[in-house]
Design goal:
It contains 2 helices and 9 strands, in the order βββββββαβαβ. The protein is mainly β. The structure holds copper (II) ion.
Length: 130
Amino acid sequence: MRSGCSVVAVILLLGVACGGSGQSTGSGLPILQGSDDPSVPYGIVAIDYHFHDAHPSIPLDPSRDVTFTNDGAVTHNVTFPELGFTKDLPVGATITIRNLGEKLGGAGTYAFFCKYHYAAYGMGGIIVIT
Ligand SMILES: [Cu+2]
């Protein structure tokens, strides 16, 4: 007597790569790391020493909230020169900027950076507002 046991293989597609591939939105990517659901905040994750999903961001509605989460091992920072906004992002912390595109001034591309690691590592990103 055998017990029929079927194994279901679950393949996890992980690892949306960092550098260079951030511009392909909606072109066949099976999984977007940053949510494309306009009803939830757009999430950007800081690691050491990079901002995921901000090279550039997907085009965001001006009313979209944007979160920055530090998934790295050291304190990072989020600075938007246009806004005069600069805030430290401790390990494990998340900050939310509501209606980011409205605050930035509407359609356009806007640079932000980590003030601690921009010079040494180029730790910055681009927000695209539609
Ligand atoms: Cu940093």
